[in-house]
Structure formats: C-alpha cells, structure tokens
Amino acid sequence: MLRIVLLFAAAGLVGALLALRKGRSPLVWFMLCAVAPLVIVVIAVLPAMPAPGFTKKCIYCAELIKEEAQLCKHCHKQQPVEMIKVKREDSF
Ligand SMILES: [Zn+2]
C-alpha cells in the first residue's frame, strides 16, 4: 500500500517539476498527476508558457527563451536590452 502511495507521490512530483519548467502551476499539476499519473503525458506535450523571472518570449520568432538570454537560441537574434525593470506593484 505504502509503495503505491509513494509511486503516486513521485508521479505528482514529476508532473509538478514539468509544470514548473513550463511556467504552469506546479500545485495544480502535482495533484492532477498524483491522482492520475498518465496526466504526466499531458503536461509533457503541453506548450510552455512564459514564466515571469524564468522565461520570456523572443520578440522575433515568438519562441520561449530564458529571461536572462541576450541571444535567442532559436533565431539567433540579439534581444533588446531592458532599460529598467519595474515591478507592477511598485508603480502605483
Ligand atoms: Zn528568436
């Protein structure tokens, strides 16, 4: 019994990690994958979403790249330099 619980928890963990890397909610995907481990396949094929502080969209080819990237790994174009990073909450 304990083995099965551990197996499902591991499936949830894998799903949460995949979700995190794709900019999706790890908590939601942990629960989904823990209940039905086959859901891992779904999160594995889902396209990634831009995650603030982790990934951004290339303005030239619209592929996801790392936020610190200065050169797009897909189209090899130089990314524009962001002059000032202002948090939304601080602007008002
Ligand atoms: Zn690009």
Q: Can you put this structure into words, describing what you see?
A:
The protein has 92 residues and is mainly α. It folds into two domains: 2-47, no CATH class; 49-79, no CATH class. The chain contains three helices and two strands. Strands 1-2 form a two-stranded antiparallel ribbon. Helix 1 packs parallel to helix 3. The longest helix has 20 residues, at 2-21. It is elongated. The mean pLDDT is 84. It binds zinc ion. The site of zinc ion has 8 residues, from loops.
Give the integer mean of the pLDDT values.
84
Principal-axis shape: elongated
The ligands found in this model are: zinc ion
In sequence order, what are the helices and strands, one letter per element? HHHEE
Tally the helices.
3
Distance, first to last CA: 54 Å
**Poorly predicted segments:** none
Radius of gyration: 17 Å
Report the β-strand fraction as a percent range: 5-15%
For the biggest sheet, the summary is:
2 strands, antiparallel
Strand order of the largest sheet: 1-2
- Determine the fraction of residues in helical runs and give it as a percent range: 40-55%
Number of domains: 2
Q: Give the strand tally.
A: 2
What structural class is derived from the secondary structure elements? mainly alpha
